[in-house]
Amino acid sequence: MKHTPTITKNKDGSPVVLELQNIKKSFVMPGGDPLLILDIPSFHIDAGELVALEGQSGSGKSTLLNVISGISRPDSGHVLISGLDIVKLAESQRDRLRADRVGLIFQQFNLLPGFTALENVLVAMSFGSAVADKVRAESLLESVGLADRLHHKPAALSIGQQQRVAVARALANRPRILLADEPTASIDPAHQQQVIDLLQTTCQDENVALLVVTHAPEIAKQFPIRYRLENFNRAVAVHPTTNEVR
Amino acid sequence: MSLLGIAWRNIRQRTFTSGLTALSMALGVALVVATLVTGGIVKQAFESGAGLGYNMIVGAKGSPLQLVLNSVYFISKPIENISWATYAKFLPASERPDNKDGIWATSTQTAVPICMGDYYQGHRVIGTNATYFDRLNRGNGEQFEFSAGSNFRDQDLYSAVIGSQVARTLNLRVNNEIAPTHGADDGKVHDPFQIVGILARTDTPIDRGVFVNMEGFYLQDGHAKPIDSTDMTQEPQAAEDTFAGEGLLPFNQREVTAILLETAALPGLPAELTAMGLRNAINEGRDAQAALPIAEIRVLLDLFVTPLELLLLLVTTLVVIVSAIGILVSMVGSSLERSRDVAIMRALGARRSVVLATVLMEAILLAVGGGIIGWLLGHGTVGLIGPWIATNAGVSVGLFSYTTTEILLVPFLIVLAILAALLPAVAAYRTDVSRWLG
């Protein structure tokens, strides 16, 4: 008999944006032995919350984001996005849910090189349920300060501008949560703060939950809610903190 | 953004390789189109064959195909000649010295004699009478037109009409004189004929012909049939029956190479049946054979042209398939770059079926885009070589000539593109997002 997860709800009765329950994920080693990468008993983020998840390289941060976004499935446990357990969904349904409710920002930005800034946002819209809205795409790019770069291709944009396009693209389908994987790792220190400010501001403006994973404590410290992934025999635990790592 | 839009941007992203792939496809399709159009139109024109003003050719016994090729297309050598008496069988009483209808006169609408064997600077010289241009047609029922001068009159013995290509290549004008040579270009030089008319371009073998008055032709050395007094098979003829006119070659010394015949419908009989009856009657005799140009050309097409066309089509189709493999190579070559793009799209929420369709659409765009360019290129080429085809094959092929087979190119290219792109499309379908973006 399958276990049905208990959904954590807000005071108004609505489910939290993201909830993880008993997530376990392991990879098979070349010798055939399993290597436990994720072991997360409980974790949740609500609408508008700005959360940093700190962890060293190889600690499973990207794997966790893949599990949350539905790109890969956990070995066990539940991933609830606005109360919907995506682990039970077929891949095509997870794809659609990711397009509609989850925004992704990558360390390397991962803009499509053959598309202009505007087209990069529009193409993300075309994978969602709603009709691609050119006005919103332009408005998003204007809000990140790229009004005069709409028709530039990534190669013609600076690193900072490319990251802004990535932010606009992640917000294209009005997601419930935005997942950012080392969003400042490829940016020089002078511009790192701008990216963090941009992410926090835009997510607050759009009332979108933000989960930033980073290896840099100085980045994590700037978030009101911080977590840390720790290694323990390759098992990973998540500890909620207020403003410091326990 | 639609699948088409995404595929188009992917193509633009790799402009150089995409351009080369499309060009390769374009050249392949251009070859196919050129083969189809020239083969198809030439066949169609040959097969229709109507509107020339004659439907039967009478000539010496032998190969009917050779008779047609020689008489209509001025290709190959004449088989032999037939007697004037045979020609006279098709003439009405008004054109015969005995004032009696020839035995086949009632079945005959028009009978135009032609005499061949002379040349003028590489061009065939055809001795005929004024009815050739007065009664026959240039094709499709259109009458002959003269760009300069006019048709010769039968009483002007040394007059000639030349085709447009002869006039152009030899820079001849009305009133110029031309002296044919006997049997070959280096043969005995005959008396000169004066050009009285230059035909407007017909895009038929007529353009290559030099037409001289038959009466002048007969008066040249070697053109009169010697009378063999010991030949007991010939019935002696009265002098008045052989007299053709003052200064003209007597009828009994005349021969014709062929007769271009338009049959008439006998009362109560359809024209086709009359023609069949006449052909059988002629062929049963010992003097001549009757050939139907359309039937002979169909034999020619079935024996040589169609297999050759099929062979060409096979070769050109292979070229297109090689071009399609070019699409595959191009896509496999850019698979690393593509895998990253596919992973990005998948991370943004694109389903596997969407990325698969995008790759297939990209291949279809390349194939169909290249195909359209190739189609235009093919027709452009045909338009350019149309005059050459017209001159050598004797049919007019224009820029916008087309065959219905060309319509099949579209589904063919789409299927080919899908087959070529299947491998990279499946690879895209299977792309591991976490591997490429992790």
Any key phrases for this structure?
heterodimer, A: 246 residues, alpha/beta, Rossmann fold, 6-stranded mixed beta sheet, 4-stranded antiparallel beta sheet, disordered C terminus, B: 438 residues, alpha+beta, 2 domains, 11-stranded mixed beta sheet, two-stranded antiparallel ribbon, 14 helices, 15 strands, 49% helix, elongated
SSE topology sketch:
The complex is a heterodimer of chains A (246) and B (438).
Chain A: E1 18-28, E2 34-45, E3 50-54, H1 61-69, E4 76-81, E5 84-85, H2 91-101, E6 102-105, H3 117-126, H4 134-143, H5 159-170, E7 177-181, H6 189-206, E8 209-214, H7 217-220, E9 225-232, E10 235-241
Parallel strand pairs in A: 3-8, 3-9, 6-7, 7-8
Antiparallel strand pairs in A: 1-2, 1-4, 4-5, 9-10
Helix pairs in contact in A: 3-4, 3-5, 4-5, 5-6
Chain B: H1 3-13, H2 15-48, E1 56-59, H3 64-72, E2 82-83, H4 84-88, E3 108-120, E4 123-128, H5 131-135, E5 137-139, E6 142-143, E7 146-149, E8 159-162, H6 164-169, E9 177-178, E10 181-182, E11 193-199, E12 210-213, H7 214-218, H8 239-242, E13 255-256, E14 258-263, H9 271-284, E15 289-291, H10 293-333, H11 335-347, H12 352-393, H13 409-429, H14 433-437
Parallel strand pairs in B: 4-12, 8-11
Antiparallel strand pairs in B: 1-14, 1-15, 2-13, 3-4, 3-10, 3-14, 5-6, 7-11, 8-12, 9-11
Helix pairs in contact in B: 1-12, 2-10, 2-12, 3-10, 10-13, 11-13, 12-13
